[in-house]
TrEMBL record:
Organism placement in taxonomy: Eukaryota, Sar, Alveolata, Dinophyceae, Suessiales
Entries under Gene3D superfamilies matching the protein: Vaccinia Virus protein VP39
Keyword Glycosyltransferase: no
Protein name: tRNA(Phe) (4-demethylwyosine(37)-C(7)) aminocarboxypropyltransferase
UniProt keyword list: S-adenosyl-L-methionine, Transferase
Residue stretches making up the TRM5/TYW2-like methyltransferase domain: 167-318
An example molecular function term from Gene Ontology annotations: transferase activity
Stored CDD domains: AdoMet_MTases
Length: 365
């Protein structure tokens, strides 16, 4: 008798680890996860036998702590009393795991749960998450005003490995960060991975590049490794992030061309001139950016980032250009025209409904 039965996502009780498809084979009659494009169906030589087999499986699933709904197909084969599998089971897909596991955000190998008032709920969810081989530790997000440092958002260890230091990898480089001390968006920070790759293609050999708001050094290291600058200097206001940046520069052996210092992002009196400035700043009125224009060499480029609505993005940024032209006019060494050479969404999707982060390349021609 062959019975194919659609059963859904296999949801667990909180105190039971999520089984793999192969572990599900221990249930009797044996069954294996299988995907089908068709809708619900059942085929058997005997409807009575089919009903009996289905009832047996449902009973044994409940005994194993499994709750059966709709969305996954399970093939159950019983022949004589010996269990036979129609074909090998497949690993659960990412979307299926997302349905089965408690809601969380992955930071490399640390799962971060949303803030919760119930420690019991956190421990229950952590136990389920730690059953997955790719999760080393579980933490919980603590918003600003909560936790040891009330001035900033952070995370707190819940279960698993108490060491919350993670290693993020990009462009063949490794970046360490202890997320119990500081948080980072990694692939989406400082314009995102795509923006870093774009900037690396623009840096000409021998250029001096300044990164404002350099964080833990991701952009500075990527530009130093993927291009041939004379120097890449990162400035970070947060001293803790700057310490991680200095360590990451050393770990990636980029000390010859890349540096990171802690200080005021708009104090450039002792830094000299630069061919290129990447301004990853929090919102600032354009008139406050006068020091940036003073630090640009003639022919240099300012990479400026701003937030714009969908309507603003659809229009020409004439007001922004006029504001930067007025700033450039205050510096005698900048005699050329300020031109917009590129404008685009960074990253290339909205950060809120109909609201984008937009990058602009402003070149002193």
């Amino acid at each position: 008798m062959l019975l194919q039965w659609e059963v859904s996502s296999m949801l667990l009780r909180s105190d039971i680890r999520i089984p793999t498809p192969w572990e599900c084979q221990r249930l009797q009659p044996s069954f294996a996860c299988r995907s089908h494009a068709s809708s619900r169906f059942c085929s058997s030589r005997s409807s009575v036998a089919a009903t009996a087999t289905a009832a047996t499986v449902l009973s044994r699933c409940r005994g194993q702590g499994l709750r059966l709904r709709t969305s996954q197909k399970v093939a159950m084969v019983a022949r004589g009393g010996d269990d036979v599998f129609a074909d090998p089971p497949r690993e659960l897909s990412r979307s299926t795991k997302k349905q089965l596991l408690p809601k969380h955000h992955m930071m490399v190998d640390v799962a971060v749960l949303a803030a919760s008032d119930s420690e019991e709920d956190l421990q229950r969810d952590a136990k389920v998450l730690l059953s997955q081989p790719h999760i080393r530790s579980v933490a919980v997000f603590e918003p600003r005003g909560v936790g040891l440092d009330e001035s900033r958002a952070g995370v707190r260890h819940v279960a698993g490995d108490p060491n919350l230091e993670i290693i993020y990898k990009e462009s063949g480089l490794s970046f360490r960060l202890d997320i119990s001390q500081r948080l980072s968006r990694f692939s989406r920070c400082q314009g995102g991975r795509g923006e870093r790759e774009r900037l690396a293609t623009l840096v000409a050999p021998g250029e001096r590049v300044l990164i404002l708001g350099s964080g833990i050094g991701i952009t500075a290291c990527v530009l130093g490794a993927r291009s041939e600058p004379a120097e890449v200097l990162g400035i970070e206001r947060d001293e803790v992030k700057n310490e991680f940046a200095v360590a990451n520069i050393c770990d990636n052996k980029l000390q010859r061309t890349v540096r990171s210092i802690a200080g005021d992002l708009l104090d450039m009196s002792q830094l000299g001139s630069f061919n290129r400035i990447c301004a990853f700043l929090k919102f600032q009125p354009i008139e406050n950016l006068q020091p940036l224009m003073g630090a640009l060499m003639p022919g240099g480029t300012l990479h400026y980032y701003n937030h714009e609505s969908k309507e603003e993005f659809s229009q020409e940024p004439s007001a922004v250009l006029e504001a930067f032209r007025a700033l450039a006019a205050g510096h005698p060494h900048l005699q050329g025209e300020v031109r917009l050479t590129w404008r685009g969404k960074v990253p290339r999707k909205s950060i809120a409904p109909k609201f984008y982060r937009v990058g602009m390349d402003l070149k002193i021609s």
